[in-house]
Specification:
The protein has about 625 residues and is of the alpha+beta class. The chain folds into two domains: about 400 residues, no CATH class; about 90 residues, Alpha-Beta Plaits (2-Layer Sandwich), CATH 3.30.70. About 55% of the residues lie in helices and about 10% in strands. The protein is built from 26 helices and 14 strands. Strands 1, 2, 3, 4, 5, 6 and 7 form a seven-stranded antiparallel β-sheet that branches. A hairpin with a 2-residue loop joins strand 11 and strand 12. Helix 5 runs antiparallel to helix 6 and helix 20 packs parallel to helix 23. The radius of gyration is 25 Å and the shape is globular.
Length: about 625
């Protein structure tokens, strides 16, 4: 191996590690990667900066604006009444309706905004029908991913791979070239979700569901069980009485939570009733039936709901300590329970991703306090100052409703339980849909450049009032865009240094004598596994030059291998970090890593076998 190849491997390893750990923001890592490639002499300055002139980057940016136009006009929210009516109390019927709606939208709109748009809709349906959000939100993400495989516009990975193919001298992919295989994916994956999802998905209430059930005259606060508290050592079932409904049906008041039994003794008021929504111990949240085997211990953090007077009396009688809120790096007691408490999902484009929570300054700017953080299923209420936010993290916030809404909008966070109340421009929804059709139809029938059509559509969204200019600019997902700009030159460097061909030679020695169709299957499996750990776009960029070199060496058409990379990078279901929509639904759905593995691993296996059979059929090797 040459010095250039070793240097490129070092750059790839360092940048990949930084992307995974998010020690630095994605934008910074991308710029550092570009700088390293240019200063090291691996690429010329023009080649190192080529990602910023990529048509893929322009197209993806314009698609984010188009997607936000649909979001701001509520173009898909008219399906709420249809979904509720069609379901008729059946979870499988509702999942089918969600699948058709979400997959259809995701085929032509970036799937991340579709999930952001539809999650409040499904949470509202969950509350009105009594169906658990945990049965709905992961299918929402999965259907969005499956829908994104149907057309070229469905996911940024497809757009990026098409651009890389054209840069290598190929003809590129048409808008519907992926459709035959994508429809098979959607049918098989959709059947799996609808038929097995209700059985494999957890039946648990998330914190967002429990807090949303509290009446307007009841407030939420955290209390800490101290060493001197009268609760220490007492079994939770001895102090708390379950109020469980037999099935997840209305009335919503039957949702699983526990109420304090001896309320007159503990809270000191006639008829007082305090609801325990969650107990956190060693960063593990416990809710519902999980509380039945627990006894209160020192350090437990309780999230309880009740009237102001009841909450005050309870902390006094039980000698528990009110929790504290993080206010711009400083801890302060929760002394105003009248403020609204809400969960906020950190979206991939949030400017707070990668930053220390103690440095966010959201109290000074918005008057909002941070009470806790949920990261990959762990609930944290201490040590928040030194925690770095990651995409998909869930913050427990407290503040005035208007302040929370402002923070959610400008901080690019999805307020769970409050986002569905946002103001939408419903009178513009048909305009937004017509603009989207104006992008898709010419691309399909006239083979016009998608980048130009997408830019035109984004411009019309602003000119016709579907979006304000500041909203259009704010909708640009800078982490995704910079990741594309930083990844494209990496692919070029792998070709120019010969690292791609070296990888091909190693693969050929490993799989000596196997038929070319086996390489398609192996490439898909490799892409799928790597995508569960890395960004799907980064994996696509790293494997595309290897696929192109392998096809030249084997003397086969590169399209089957490129399609394997496209579908393997898009169809990621086993972990919350493999695809950003999976991370977005984790907190609101109350999911754990185990839930993703149980539901996603069989689906990954099913689609791998499907791809191995059908890619050579739709994209012949010769």
């Amino acid at each position: 191996m040459t010095l250039e190849q070793w240097l490129l491997i070092a750059i790839i390893i360092i940048s990949t590690t930084l992307y995974i750990t998010q020690r630095l923001r994605t934008e910074l890592v991308a710029l550092l990667t570009i700088t390293a490639l240019g200063l090291s002499g691996i690429l010329s300055p023009d080649a190192a900066l080529s990602g910023f002139s990529s048509s893929a980057l322009i197209t993806v940016a314009a698609m984010f604006v188009l997607s936000n136009g649909l979001l701001k006009t509520g173009a898909l929210e008219s399906v709420v009444a249809f979904l509720g009516h069609y379901a008729q109390g059946s979870l499988r019927r509702l999942l089918t309706a969600v699948g058709v709606t979400v997959a259809s939208a995701s085929a032509f709109v970036n799937n991340t905004p579709v999930v952001v748009m539809m999650m409040p809709v499904l949470l509202s349906l969950s509350r009105s029908t009594g169906m658990r959000a945990s049965k709905l939100l992961l299918p929402l993400s999965y259907f969005a991913i499956l829908g994104g495989t149907v057309t070229l516009l469905g996911t940024s990975t497809n757009i990026l791979l098409d651009d890389l193919y054209r840069r290598a001298g190929g003809p590129g992919f048409g808008l519907f070239d992926f459709t035959p295989l994508g429809l098979i994916y959607l049918i098989l994956g959709g059947a799996y979700i609808v038929l097995l999802g209700p059985r494999l998905l957890p039946d648990t209430a998330s914190l967002a569901e429990l807090t949303a059930l509290q009446p307007a005259n009841r407030y939420l606060t955290e209390v800490i069980v101290t060493a001197h508290s009268s609760l220490v050592g007492r079994a939770v079932p001895a102090v708390l009485t379950p109020t469980l409904g037999a099935a997840p049906r209305p009335p919503i008041a039957q949702t699983r939570h526990r109420r304090i039994v001896n309320a007159r003794d503990e809270a000191g008021g006639d008829g007082a009733s305090l609801a325990l929504l969650q107990l956190i111990r060693a960063e593990v949240p416990y809710r519902g039936r999980e509380l039945e085997t627990l006894a209160f211990a020192v350090g437990d953090v309780l999230l309880i709901a009740g009237t102001v007077s009841d909450l005050t009396r309870f902390t006094s009688r039980t000698r528990t300590t009110p929790g504290s809120a993080l206010r711009d790096g400083e801890r302060a007691p929760i002394n105003d329970v009248r403020q609204q408490m809400m969960e906020a999902v950190v979206l991939p484009a949030s400017p707070y991703v990668g930053r220390l929570i103690g440095d966010l300054d959201v109290y000074q700017e918005y008057g909002v306090s941070i009470l806790g953080l949920q990261h990959e299923g762990r609930q944290m209420v201490t040590g928040l100052r030194v925690r770095r936010l990651a995409s998909g993290d869930v913050l427990l916030l407290q503040g005035e409703p208007a302040a929370l809404q402002r923070l959610g909008e400008w901080g690019k966070m999805l307020l769970v339980g409050g986002a569905e109340e946002r103001t939408i421009r419903a009178d513009k929804n048909w305009i937004a849909l017509l603009i989207m059709l104006g992008v898709v139809v010419p691309a399909a029938v006239a083979d016009l450049p998608i980048a130009i059509l997408a830019i035109s559509g984004a411009l019309l969204m602003v000119l016709l009032g579907c979006l304000r200019l500041d909203e259009a600019l704010h909708s640009l997902d800078s982490p995704t865009l910079f990741l594309i700009a930083g990844s494209i030159p990496l692919g070029s460097a792998m070709q120019s240094t010969g690292l791609a061909q070296l990888s091909v030679d190693s693969l050929l020695r490993l799989l000596d004598g196997v038929p070319p169709a086996v390489f398609v299957s192996v490439f898909y499996l490799l892409t799928s596994i790597l995508t569960e750990i890395l960004s799907n776009n980064a994996v696509a960029v790293l494997l595309t030059p290897i696929a192109y070199s392998l096809s030249a060496t084997l003397g086969i058409d590169p399209r089957p291998l490129l399609v394997a990379v496209a579908f393997g990078a898009s169809a990621s279901f086993m972990t919350p970090i493999g695809y950003q929509t999976n991370a977005i639904v984790m907190g609101p759905g109350g999911y754990t890593f185990k839930d993703y593995l149980r539901m996603g691993a069989p689906l990954n296996l099913l689609l791998w076998l499907t791809a191995s059979i059908f890619i050579p059929v739709f994209f012949p090797l010769h």
